[in-house]
Amino acid sequence: MARALLFQSSLPTKFWGESVLTATYLINRLPTPLLHWKSPFEVLHQKPPDYTHLKVFGCLCYASNNSPHKGKFDQRASKCVFLRYSSYKKAYRVMDLDTNTMFDSRDVMFHEITYPFQSTPQKQILSHFRYQLLILILIESPTSTPTPTDSLNSSPTVPVSPNIYPSASSSSCIPDSFSLAHICFVSQCSSMQEPKTYLQANKDARWVAAMQEELQALDRNGTWELTSLPPTKRAIGSWWVFKLKIHPDGSIARYKARLVAKGYNQTEGVDYFDSFSSVAKSVTVRILMSIAAAKSWPLFQLDINNAFLHGHLDEEVYMDPLEGYTTAQPGQDILRDASMLDARPTSISFNLNNEEGALLHCPDRYRRLVGRLLYLGFTRPDLSFPVQQLSQFMQHPRTSHWDAALHVLRYLKGTCTLGLFFPSQSSLHLSAYSDAAWASCPDSRRSITGFCISFGTSLISWKTKKQTMVSRSSAEAEYRSMGSTVCELLWISYLLSDFLIPMQQPISFWCDNRAALHITANPVFHERTKHLDIDCHLVRDQYKRGFILPSHIRGLDQPAISSLRLTIPASLAYCPS
């Protein structure tokens, strides 16, 4: 590295000491595989090095003149050359080109594209990225095609110097002698940028589509399966590699994203025992071409997408979860364990009681399945009602209850891709929907409360729960359900207040029972509702305070009905996420 620094800067050999010190300074801050891709500086100081102060060795710079004897019209900076980094303070060691004296300075302005000791001036400077793309496309272009000329500018081509250095500014200097077609060509090439990280690629929909295509190919080939890392195994990482496929005319052919594992972290003899890739021998190819030519056979050329995935891996390799990968069907593991991956999807509801069917010989299997459905219900409000129904029989489950659980799995088979959706363009206001299934329990004839609460257009809270006492009318059951919903709204309002988020009042409150709405708004019904619990009249109190604004909604448009049925209502069927 020291020799390369001297050659690049054209400094005399007498500055070999400065080049060695600079090379040592840089090597100590470069990651190395011997230290698990950490730099010696990071291993020693337990923090990553700072690269913002690095400058080009041997470049022109101007150091501040701090002489106390300078006058008002004297130069404020001296023309110098950068030699190395100071070893005992945060400064740069520079040499004054007029006096040939070396000194350390903190206040330095660098011109990293100019070298004072270089004899050949660099008149034409193109950015490194443009130059690479230009060379790449010119090599891929057919040699038989004549070079296009521009009738507007017929001046001879200016030769580009072999020493090309990256420009410090964002723009590039293009001489006027270049033709208009050449300028347009290079400008188009410069716009083709390949992302280096997943975060950069995730900002472009074209690269996102390329990553999704790669992940789908990996899933189709069964490249991996999600599992837990054994204690004795070590997982390797992965990263995305992005590449632009370019046509001979310079246009973009394809956005290619490839996911590769960090195989360099593996140890031979422990993680793998042999590395081999089968390729076609050139002699075989020439023999086939000779036979085809002799027998006048047509020759066809083809390309197999993701050909490297068709091989078989004998060793077990564990890889950390990668960026951008999500399980599209989170309920698949439940279906796999229940041997129902090939089940026929259904959406028919069911009614359970405590009498039908014989007792299960293995109730733990039923409890384990219901527990997994309960966990899945954290992101699936449509599973709230069936899980509530199945949870009633955890102590003594019967065969009818097991059949009902399998029925839920068949429903899950057709809705594995559904889930919650949190849009970015959403207003921060609350809205609530309340519903009740009157006397729906065949054993106790108690009603079931169901509600859902949205924050803007995001569903944040829902519940399906059997009421604690029997209701004598559907209006009473709906009114009790409204009381439970108001309690949840009060708690959410306190939480938003702690988050310092202003809340708009009154909160929109929707119910499909007009009698319950009349009980809330009309005190004349007080004599008819004395038997209701006092806490149920919390709804009326909060209505008077202006906390909620109850309104009527049609039963078919009621989102809260999903908390009381296994099927998705019409109001939610058109917006699965």
UniProtKB/TrEMBL annotation:
Lineage of the species this protein comes from: Eukaryota, Viridiplantae, Streptophyta, Embryophyta, Tracheophyta
Organism from which the protein derives: Sesamum angolense
Domain Retroviral polymerase SH3-like, first and last residues per copy: 59-121
Name recorded for this polypeptide: Retrovirus-related Pol polyprotein from transposon RE2
Domain of life assignment: Eukaryota
Residue ranges constituting the Reverse transcriptase Ty1/copia-type domain according to the UniProt record: 221-328
InterPro entries per the UniProt record, alphabetical: DNA/RNA_pol_sf, RNaseH-like_sf, RVT_2, SH3_retrovirus
